[in-house]
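Quick illustration for those who missed Monday's session on complexes.
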Amino acid sequence: MSSPAAALAIAPAVRAALSGGGAVVALESTIITHGMPWPDNVETGRAVEAAVRAEGAVPATIAVLDGVPRIGLSAAELEALAARRDVVKASRRDLGPVVARGGSAGTTVAATMFLAARAGIAVFATGGIGGVHRGAQESFDISADLLELAHSRVAVICAGAKSILDIPRTLEVLETQGVPVIGYGTDEFPAFFARSSGCRVEHRCDTPAELAGVIAAHHALGLPGGVLIGNPLPEAAAQDAAAMEAAIVRAAAEAAAQGIAGKALTPFLLARLVALTEGRSLAANIALIHNNAILAARTAVALARR
Ligand code: PSU
Ligand code: MN
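Prediction with manganese (II) ion bound:
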């Protein structure tokens, strides 16, 4: 048997930064393949990588291409990932089957965390994490993202969880799993399209250096699993909560009526929200992933300096 890390293809710039103690930020790819329409997806993928570089860190967009988990993509590979129609959504459990058949996949937060940890990357930026879906008491639909946060030692910077999810129950599961949840510049867990959710978090940090301190302490203690950082979206990108809630309720009802469930549910809801809000949800999504990438880069730089 070869070592697990041998199965990964790490891009040269990422490998150089990791071996030289430089700052690296992992980026997920389901947001590109299943979270946004073309061409916003590829444009956002490129812009987010540029934002990470501008802060002095190396971006590592993670995906599976033709059966190989890739840690860092070239510009051409990123574009191909965004344009191809044969790309599936891979969460943690899908990785083995996709690799075995030589397939290509956008990786969810769970799968990206797993691969980032394997490659030795400590900081990861995404838009929103998956969580406990509304009605999970019936459907049992709880994203594998939450369980991966308990397993893979990667700090995940997100804008909270969309209110297509049940945020209080999402936070309960994270507590049960022993995942630290930090508010960045806030005492509440952010709600993706809105800066606040009404749900308080136990811990708050106000600078990238403080975040790096928490991550370093978590590592030094030998705690397995991740650290979840909720970074509220920029004020200017925040959406009217009532209008967004109405769109979410409608999209969720449509999903139920059409029998859409399982891994197809989140992409369906995201696409319907873009249509129902006439693109406002997409604009907010783009702004917040950019904002998260910058904070992740600053945190990775602060961590590398320690
Ligand atoms: N939430 C978003 N945008 C996304 C996702 C979630 O606002 O693109 C994606 C992420 O990749 C996340 C995944 O990890 O959906 C969760 O899917 P599921 O609920 O099927 O676990
Ligand atoms: Mn699910």
